[in-house]
User: Fold this.
Amino acid sequence: MSLLERIERDFLAAYKNKDTDLVAVLRMLKTAAKNRHVEIQRPLTDDEVLDLVLKQIKQRQESIDMYSKAGREELAAKEAAELQLLRAYQPQPLSEGELTTLIETLIAEQGASSIKDMGRVIQAIMNTHKGRVDGKAVSELVRNRLSS
Assistant:
């Protein structure tokens, strides 16, 4: 089952169960997917739908930070609840040990030896493990490994 089909199925179930929070989040996600479909004029692939999910997750994280800094805890809590609902559509993240092993493997495969090679290593990780790793964490771990 594709990610878009899963979202549609979950939307219908949430609608029938009157889960207003999940309905709102999935409706927003479906709208973003429909807009992207119209924009590119072809059906979306799972990777493109995943990109939309990740974009929505990032927006929620930024909103939480802004609301927290402004002292609007009730709005930050609402965004945090939506963030948790969206995370169900994100692939299982790699553990820190798995990420470290992956970085070591890619550095060895690519023959990376200095900070100059950092971009190639990060790009390879982000391309093959989209949605499963945090870009900031990858960048920090690769930088630490290549600078030592």
Remarks:
- DSSP finds seven helices and no strands in the chain.
- The chain has a mean pLDDT of 90.
- The two ends are 44 Å apart (CA to CA).
- The helical segments are 3-16, 20-40, 46-69, 73-87, 96-110, 118-128, 135-147.
